[in-house]
């Protein structure tokens, strides 16, 4: 079986870079104060092979951006992994997206670290 993603073929990559959003997230005691949200940097890349796209079809990053803008009002989330999975699901909401990479970084979590976080790369699950 041929893998879904083949980077040797022509493709398009749509990106949202360094989206800054504040939300309630984290396991550390200092992250669980509603009056002090955690600042996050979110990066999203969505990939599609160009020959698989219909004429006029495009990958719209607006739904991802709109969802991120709601994060300041969401309830506390213990793990970044949950937030990443939500963004991955949004990426695959566009039928043209064959793969995506999502990272969420806490740039202010530790004084001696430029940032700590998570990054995932996912292929669209095959249809059942």
Q: Give the low-confidence spans.
A: none
Largest sheet: 4 strands, antiparallel
Helix residue percentage: 10-25%
Provide the structure class. Answer: alpha+beta
* Alpha-carbon distance between the two ends: 15 Å
Strand order of the largest sheet: 1-2-3-4
Q: What CATH architecture label applies?
A: 2-Layer Sandwich
**Beta-strand percentage range:** 25-35%
The coarse silhouette is: elongated
The Rg value, from CA coordinates, equals: 16 Å
Give a count of the beta strands, DSSP E runs of length 2 or more. Answer: 4
- The CATH class name reads Alpha Beta
Arithmetic mean pLDDT: 90
Q: Give the number of domains.
A: 1
How many helices? The count is 2
List the helices and strands in order: EEHHEE
Q: Any idea what the CATH superfamily is called?
A: GTP cyclohydrolase I, C-terminal domain/NADPH-dependent 7-cyano-7-deazaguanine reductase, N-terminal domain
CATH topology: GTP Cyclohydrolase I, domain 2
């Amino acid at each position: 079986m041929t893998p879904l993603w083949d980077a040797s073929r022509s493709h398009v990559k749509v990106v949202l870079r360094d989206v800054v959003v504040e939300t309630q997230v984290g396991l550390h005691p200092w992250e669980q104060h509603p009056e002090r949200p955690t600042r996050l940097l979110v990066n999203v890349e969505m990939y599609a092979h160009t020959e698989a796209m219909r004429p006029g079809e495009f990958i719209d990053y607006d739904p991802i951006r709109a969802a991120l803008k709601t994060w300041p009002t969401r309830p506390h989330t213990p793990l970044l992994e949950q937030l990443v999975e939500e963004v991955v699901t949004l990426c695959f909401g566009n039928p043209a997206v064959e793969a995506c990479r999502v990272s969420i970084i806490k740039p202010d979590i530790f004084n001696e670290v430029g940032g700590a976080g998570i990054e995932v790369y996912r292929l669209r699950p095959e249809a059942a």
